[in-house]
Amino acid sequence: MKTIKKITALVVMVTILVNTLYTSAYATENGKLTSYYGDGNQVSAWDGKTTEFEYYYDDYTVSFILESYWDTGYNLKVRIKNISEYDIHNWYLAYDSSYPILKIWNAEIYEQNNNYTIIKNAEWNQDISAGGIIEYGITCVGDFFGFPSEAQLVTKSVEKDSSKYDVKYIVNSDWNTGFSGTITIINKDDKPLEDWTLEFNFGKEISNLWNGKMEASGDGHYVVQNVGYNSNIPAGGEISFGFVGKNGARDICPTDLKLYTYEVSTIEYVQLEDGSIDKKYLEEAIKPQLILDNKSIDNIKLSDDYDNDGLTLIQEYEYDTNPFIKDTDGDRLDDYDEVNIYFTNPIDFDTDDDNMGDGIEIECGLNPLLKDTDGDGDLDNNEIITQQVKLDAVNSYTLSEVGTLP
After folding, report:
1. 370 is in which domain, residue-wise?
2. DSSP character at residue 370
3. DSSP for 50-94?
4. 309 exposed, middle or buried (CB, 10 Å; 0-12, 13-18, 19+)?
């Protein structure tokens, strides 16, 4: 839900990870390799014997390995290892060196200038499974001058503007007790849509799916992800996935569609004690409010929860919610509950656009993800809701005098 914030130079990544651990492998006289943890200082000039440098992060590691060198060039192998429990999608690797690359395999050069290089996956290896490893290699010309001081993955999930794509739905067949349908995503952008995920509401239960993977479902809300071989939609191209549903559905269509892709993100980061965060966000949104609240700005952490709503600072950033207000959109649901319990949009008062706030719908026993919860053709805001209220609950309200009769 957050728009990517672009900057013109990635060299600012030098400030990202002060506490990153580096592993260097040295060739001893007998040819064996030993390892040690260094102090994180940049290898500004090659010492003639270091053959491997590792950059360690919470979710992955990056290793640069000098495999061979000669008078006019050298070969480097780069290994990215996923040490998390989740897949890494559509990886892009940025580092603050500009090796003069003559040849590259298992990847491609996305961008390079005098300050930094961004390497892109080769599509067939764009996702790194949990615990998985990918490797690519480069041949460079000239002398090897040392390892980068920083090397980091720079990919982020982004919600695409609806003007960049179309979604079409057709019912292939309907036999009253069930039906089959196809959803087609059409890329209207001038560049590929990479590693897509489609989110939508649908008033029917989907029981089977092909050419897509069901990431989440419940209460008529679905999240469908690509299945690898159809992960990228070329400019002007399209992909389709199909499904079988329960009960006939000739007159019901998916609604509230949102398309997400994974794209390269060159945000300027600043290092905190427990991780890095967008520098602009920190300087413009967090520090001024802390100062107004008469709180310290010297020890900000990603794990901080200023409004005590259950979402940490980094989670508030990812969801674009206000870290100082429990209920960002004022819909009577805390941001944490919207994200983790009801799956509503924490920055949208009325997620399903039925003219009822999300919290009111929950209180009335309605589904805040569906405009027409009971499927009777009337929007939820037109329904008549009958509730039983206990007398002691009524007496608990404080009544205010609004005027007196003459």
Report:
1. 319-406
2. -
3. EEEEEEE-SSEEEEEEEEEEETTEEEEEEEEEE-SSSPBPS-EEE
4. buried
DSSP letter at 290?
A: H
Q: Tell me, yes or no, whether 114 and 23 share the same domain.
A: yes
Of the three residues 153, 180, 196, the one that is the final residue of a domain is 153
- Looking at the structure, do residues 110 and 235 belong to the same domain, yes or no? no
Quick one: the chain helix, strand, coil %, rounded to 5? Answer: 15, 35, 50
Measured CA to CA in angstroms, residue 23 lies from 11, 35, 38, 117, 395 at distances of 22, 7, 6, 21, 68
Tokens of 315: 């989670």
> Distance between CA 123 and CA 121 in Å, rounded?
6
CA separation for the pair 199, 195 (Å, rounded): 13
**pLDDT 10s digits, 50-97:** 899 999 988 999 999 999 999 999 999 999 999 999 999 999 999 988
Nearby residues of 258 by Cβ (< 8 Å), 6 or more positions away:
159, 198, 199, 200
**Number of domains within the chain:** 3
Do 144 and 184 share a domain, yes or no?
no
Q: What is the pLDDT of residues 352-405, one digit of tens each?
A: 999 999 999 999 999 999 999 888 888 888 877 666 655 554 454 444 444 444
The amino acid present at 397, given as its one-letter code, is Y
Cα distances (Å, whole numbers) of residue 238 to 167, 188, 199, 319, 406: 9, 9, 17, 28, 71
Same domain, 70 and 196: no
**pTM exceeds cut of 0.70:** no
Choosing from 134, 153, 172, the residue where a domain stops is 153
Q: Is 324 helix (H, G, I), strand (E, B) or coil?
A: coil
> DSSP assignment, residue 320?
T
Give the span between the Cα atoms of 371 and 360, in whole angstroms: 13
Residues shown for the chain: 406
Q: Are residues 28 and 128 in the same domain?
A: yes
